[in-house]
Amino acid sequence: MTVVDRVSTPGGSGTAVVDAAREFVPRIRDLARQMEVDRRLDHQLVEDMEAAGLFSVVVPKLWGGCGLGPHELNKVVELIATADISTAWVTGFYNFHNWFLCRYPREVQEELFADRASVRCAAILSSPGTAERADGKLRVNGRWGYATGILHASHAMVPVIVDDDMSWVIVPRDQLELIDDWDVAAMAATGSVTIVAKDVVIPDTWALPFGKMMSATDHEGTFHEEEAMRLPFSVMTTAISSLYVGALDAAVEISRQKMGTASGINSAPRIERPMARMRWVNAFQTARMMHLARDAAIDDALAVARRGVPQTLEEEAMNGLFGVTILRTVRDALRELVDGNGSSGYRADNHLRRMSQDIAMISTHAVHGEYDVMMDRHARWLLGMGLAPGDPGARMT
Question: Which are the contacts of 139, defined by CB distance < 8 A and separation ≥ 6?
């Protein structure tokens, strides 16, 4: 049994959607290189994944979603990541953003989910734009980069300042200008272009303070029966760690398959070389350990959330350290595997090369990346030094 085979076992809650994710893996892997070149996901693939419920894993059953929780979302993202990290990234984000939309007032949810079980929605976490009140509406202006998922989306959530508080406002995509500036060497297929709003008018109910988005219960979605609607965002973020875990699983299997090949003139097959075997088994064991770390992270986060009180700074730091550590460990393990696969590991169509570059880019992301910033923050919180300038204004609790 391989590491990938152990991602999920049949018979548990959410088996159908996990099985659906598994069935997409070969197709996504076949499309991955072309999507990288196109700098966007294949549109028919996105349509089919949505129809299979892969973007509505945590959408409440009231709106036609799967009504599941973080464990099932972890499995879905992990499996998709074995095929392509950009696709897994967008999949995770569409699920997160559906979860966020289910925190808005009920009448907003009813409108958004009236004829669909998921809303393909981008969301941006960056410097806020502006929103001016007028007759129960908001006039929104701003420019935001990194709009992951917008190329296939119907809406976007963008940060603005409303009444001196940072909020996310929902803006229909057809009222946004898209700037084709996603020219990157990694994570290219996410299509995370810049978006611009110019005097876009929306109902003021389409704004929700950022703190309510992150909170377990201080929002408008607690009428839903599912536990996921009463969890803080810190629990949901373990799906991002699942992406890293899935990527390393796939890399281990790719490298296993190459063990019988040679690299270089007069070189013995890798499987006959002690150092090549050691390099591979180290990655194999690292993958196993990352599964354990991810599982411990979700178990700890759920245990804290089920107490019914917000995380302390120390608990939030320990949760964050799981994500930072898993990401950095997977990044380094992937680099080692690429180095052990010879010059072919740097071909444009090489799946291992693409995964290594993608994870390296994610390691600069605001959630688990920016290693120096994140580690210093977690150290201060664990040492009882409290919040400092530059720390998040609204925590993920």
Answer: 131, 132, 199, 200, 201
> If you count them, how many residues does the chain have?
397
Angstrom distance (rounded) from CA 328 to CA 363? 7
- No. of helices (H) and no. of strands (E), the chain: 12, 8
Domains, the chain, with CATH or none: 3-113 (1.10.540.10), 121-209 (2.40.110.10), 231-383 (1.20.140.10)
Under DSSP, is residue 77 helix (H, G, I), strand (E, B) or coil?
Answer: helix
Give Cβ neighbours of residue 76 (< 8 Å, ≥ 6 apart): 17, 18, 21, 54, 57, 91, 95
- How far, rounded to the nearest angstrom, does the alpha carbon of residue 142 sit from its chain's CA centroid? 24
Helix, strand or coil for residue 307? coil
Q: Is residue 97 a contact partner of residue 147, using CB atoms and an 8 Å limit?
A: no
* Residue 380 to residue 392: CA distance in whole angstroms: 13
Q: For residues 203 and 138, what is the distance between their CA atoms, to the nearest angstrom?
A: 6
Residue 77's alpha-carbon distances to 92, 166, 230, 335, 341, in angstroms, are: 6, 29, 21, 22, 26
How do residues 54-107 score in pLDDT, each as one tens digit?
999 999 999 999 999 999 999 999 999 999 999 999 999 999 999 999 999 999
The residue type at 313: L
Cα distance between residue 177 and residue 190, in whole Å:
18
pTM (2 decimals)?
Answer: 0.94
- Does residue 332 carry a pLDDT above 60? yes
Return the pLDDT at 368: 63
